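User: Can you help me understand a structure? I only have the sequence.
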Amino acid sequence: MKLLVAFLALPAILSAQDKPAPAFDMSIERLDPAMDALIAPDAKVERLAHGFTWSEGPAWLDGAVVFSDVPKNVAYRWKEGMTSAEVFLKPSGMTTPREGFREQGSNGLARDAKGRLILCMHGDRRIARHEDGKFVTIADGFEGKKFNSPNDLAIRRNGDIYFTDPPYGLDRTNDSPLKELPFNGVFRVTPEGKVSLLTKDIKWPNGIAFSPDEKRLYVGVSDGRQPHLMVHDVAADGSIANARVFFDPASLRAKGRKGSCDGLKVDARGNVWASGPGGILIISPEGKHLGSILTNQPTANCGWGDDGSTLYITANMFLVRVKTLTKGSGW
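Assistant: Let's start by predicting it. Here is the structure, written out as tokens:
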């Protein structure tokens, strides 16, 4: 009887990653023959770690993938050979406890040209660099007002950081008393620290990425009623213009597939790999849906790693990967 009691009590002391994994049913959907040149016919979705509250923002750093668990205010690290992810940064997004936040941690992550980790920090409401064990502020406001909760970012070859600033980190989001800006913007900050507003016309801007030639800027719009992907032309001075819908996943939503338009990345051939209903949607530069990595989970984001050909995906409580036949833009 004592042995039975000890056995039953054991799961209570296990960490989330040590507990039995929830059902895992992920696959690759092929809608166009072009998919075979991007993901091998025998490729599988590999589960790497699980047990997270809401995993986000995977980025490749020093031979490992780092990613955020936004509500937990923790960034994790996973590399080949690990049986579970390890804590990398705690805290990751709110360094001084304060009230009024629904998601305190880091969200989107990226590596700059010098190999340093750049973070969107919800709780601190800033873009920051992690260097020598410290967070260094890159930008935390516009025209004297605090950002809402920077969400995702993309770094141009010239060092400019483009980022989205929806209010998802704040309690009551747009109705939060902490919200200082009357809009949810897409911004740019230069290496010198100059912040400029690119657009305030997207109600719920989220994921963001450049085309390989940096002449296009893609933005995921996580509008609960009508999620979609936008594309803008990037002018010589770094501003954006000619906003238009790049892809509308209404037909996928009609099938009851889980998830919204959130994070996205672009491969070296210009294909967009974007979170959307069902998982990660693979969309040609012309806007054709070629296929999907079906996670059957609300899926936040993805990022390239290893030699640039592995796509790491944060799907709700999971970290997974898919080996591809392409490489990420910039690799």
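Now, to help you interpret it: The helical segments are 2-9, 250-254. Residues 2-9 form the longest helix (8 residues). Let me know which part you'd like to focus on.
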